[in-house]
Fold:
Amino acid sequence: MDVLRRNNVRVTGRPDGRTLVLAHGFGCDQNLWRLVAPAFAADHRVVLFDYVGSGRSDVSAYDPVRYGSLEGYAADAIDVVRAVGGAPVVFVGHSVSAIVGVLAAARAPELFERLVLVGPSPRYVDDDGYVGGFTRADIDELLASLDSNFLGWSSAMAPVIMGNPDRPELAELDLNPVICTERGASLADARAVVA
Structure:
């Protein structure tokens, strides 16, 4: 399958500039970068994409085995970088994409010049001596909520994902990508993130 179509890849900016790959986090799509990408377009070649199951990616390409762990998303990131050329690239990963970028760079270091990790966490679940942000009970509740009421979960999470309570209009803009994410893919993604 064509990677550019599968991952809804868009390339903007300066064709001869340093390649900057912007990767969205869980529950989002490339629209997350709509206010950031234009600021880099004058000096950089900007690559935006959607992980399979998010945004306008080809949902028929979703494979629960491939995407049952973050390694599948790292493979997608590598595929995208190879497809657009311009390596080594600067990979900017938001949230779980920060870890995806680390995994991708470990597998194909020649493709990555730098990693910019925005809000990374090496693990999202609390454990003995480690606070990742969520208890096992929190995760079980999240997964149950996703499974039983995906649209309700999406509506509730958009403001949390944006993290700007003083600017509710941003959460409203980001609600559509979250809702557009396929329900089954989001549930599997959530399980992969906390695995």
In short: Confidence is low (pLDDT under 50) at residues 173-188. The helical segments are 3-6, 37-41, 70-84, 96-107, 136-148, 150-162, 168-180, 183-194. DSSP finds eight helices and five strands in the chain.
